[in-house]
Design brief:
By secondary structure, the protein is of the alpha/beta class. It has 2 domains: 2-73 and 369-405, Urease, subunit C, domain 1, CATH 2.30.40; 76-359, Metal-dependent hydrolases (TIM Barrel, Alpha-Beta Barrel), CATH 3.20.20. Helix content is 35%, strand content 20%. The chain contains 15 helices and 16 strands. It has helices spanning 14-18, 89-96, 101-106, 111-120, 123-139, 155-167, 190-207, 225-237, 255-260, 274-282, 291-296, 304-310, 330-339, 345-351, 354-359, and strands at 2-11, 31-39, 45-50, 62-65, 70-73, 75-77, 142-148, 172-177, 213-217, 241-246, 265-268, 286-289, 313-316, 377-380, 398-401, 404-405. The strands form 3 sheets. An 8-stranded parallel beta sheet has the order 6-7-8-9-10-11-12-13. The chain has a 4-stranded mixed beta sheet with strand order 3-2-1-4, with no helix packed on it. A 4-stranded antiparallel beta sheet has the order 5-14-15-16, with no helix packed on it. The protein starts with a strand and ends with a strand.
């Protein structure tokens, strides 16, 4: 058993977990000063508390002096598109000149642009590109990363992307199938493409063990609420988790349907209607905020403060992708959340830890530092207030996953 001791402050988020990540206060970060933590051989926490209360009957095989650093749960990114080839830097310039996301897509850019480049890339090329991105995330304290497909738009390439996810090392990768991301160039309409997904692709992905989660992009000029209903039925029959890209550029009014079918998360929610918020708050659905995407494509930010006041559980994510959110910078994400989403520091920290764990259905294993959860944590010499204060400054010193040091 490993003893981590001489910890200045352990921010465990135990109370935040107990409150299901809703209506949180700064006290819910659950500080333990002058702390110590015991981790078993499997990498799970067996005890955490004040060092003076540590019992002497534990069989300690290794001692790690953290030298008055503080610890927090490791960060979790619950929404990324990390496997792709190429970039869309030209589109960034076009948007800055006034072109809309939809106009660029109609001209052959957008998602389909990345699809063409990803289809051409070999599996090994994609592994090399994605592993570098994973490594960048780990250095910032991320040990768990959700990674979507969606840049294949045919079964062969979607499988290739998800196989790349399995090959990635160091971080815990949670694979999500996002076949219904856009219309593939070889299909004439979304109806026939979705029919192919429902009758063939989704089951092939699931039975191959490549993903346990599914996602769909519900948006004007993309997939509709009718498509979503059909997709849900198939996803449920396979007992897969479901998340939805919803209300990013228009109101899609999917909240009621999502609640009915126990969807795991609703992501973006820029145009969620006031009347939908109370129902969402009463549900177990996590709302995932992705402000980097909204910043990059010049659209309003989601009404995070309203959602929080209603009691909705909010997670935060980079939405890292080559088009609408080409940034892996957690400091940028956190600063945007504080400045433009009006989130408080404790809400940002919860959004990247326990609430992100809820968004992935991992809240019993990750997101807070408690007995029987994985010992995924970061250390810092800084004060808590130094996090998400200055873009480019992210004071993570060491990163541990299952009790083993990654950085």
């Amino acid at each position: 058993m490993i003893l981590y001791y001489n910890i200045k402050t352990a921010y465990t988020l135990k109370a935040a977990y107990k409150k299901m990540g809703k209506l949180l206060s700064a006290k819910d970060l659950s500080q333990v000063k002058n702390a110590a933590m015991l981790v078993d051989k499997d990498g799970k926490i067996t005890w955490l508390g004040k060092e003076v209360n540590l019992k002497k009957d534990f069989k300690i095989t290794q001692r790690v002096d953290l030298k008055q650093q503080s610890i927090l749960p490791a960060f979790i990114d619950c929404h990324t598109h990390i496997v792709f080839a190429g970039n869309r830097a030209k589109e960034f310039e076009l948007r800055n000149q006034g072109a809309s996301y939809q106009a660029i897509a109609k001209a052959g850019g957008g998602i389909v642009n990345t699809v063409k480049q990803t289809r051409k890339a070999t599996k090994q090329e994609l592994i090399s590109l994605a592993q570098k991105r994973v490594d960048r995330f780990i250095k910032q304290g991320l040990t768990t990363i959700e990674a979507k497909s969606g840049y294949g738009l045919n079964l062969k390439t979607e499988k290739k992307i998800l196989e790349v996810n399995k090959a990635l090392k160091k971080a815990r990768i949670i694979s999500t199938y996002l076949g219904p991301h856009a219309l593939p160039p070889e299909h004439k309409n979304l109806d026939t493409y979705l029919e192919q997904i429902i009758t063939k692709d989704l089951e092939a992905i699931f039975t191959a063990g490549l993903a346990c989660r599914a996602d769909i992009f519900v948006e004007k000029n993309y997939f509709t609420k009718i498509h979503l209903n059909a997709y849900i039925q198939k996803v449920k029959s396979l007992k897969m988790d479901l998340t939805i890209h919803a209300d990013q550029m228009s109101s899609t009014e999917v909240v009621e349907l999502a609640i009915k079918h126990h969807v795991r998360s609703l992501d973006h929610l820029v145009y969620i209607k006031d009347k939908e918020m109370a129902a969402l708050a009463k549900s177990n659905i996590t709302a995932v905020m992705l402000p980097i995407a909204e910043k990059y494509i010049h659209i309003p930010f989601p009404p995070a403060r309203k959602l929080l006041k209603q009691g909705v559980r909010l997670a935060l994510s980079t939405d890292f992708n080559p088009g609408s959110a080409p940034s892996q910078d957690l400091s940028f994400l956190g600063v945007l959340a504080r400045l433009d989403l009006k989130m408080h520091l404790h809400e940002v920290i919860a959004g990247l830890t326990i609430n992100a764990a809820f968004a992935l259905g991992l809240e019993k294993e990750l997101g807070s530092l408690e007995k029987n959860k994985w010992a995924d944590f970061i250390t810092t010499e800084a004060e808590l207030e130094d996090f998400f204060y200055s873009v480019g400054q992210h004071p993570v010193k060491q990163v541990y996953s299952k009790g083993k040091k990654l950085v």
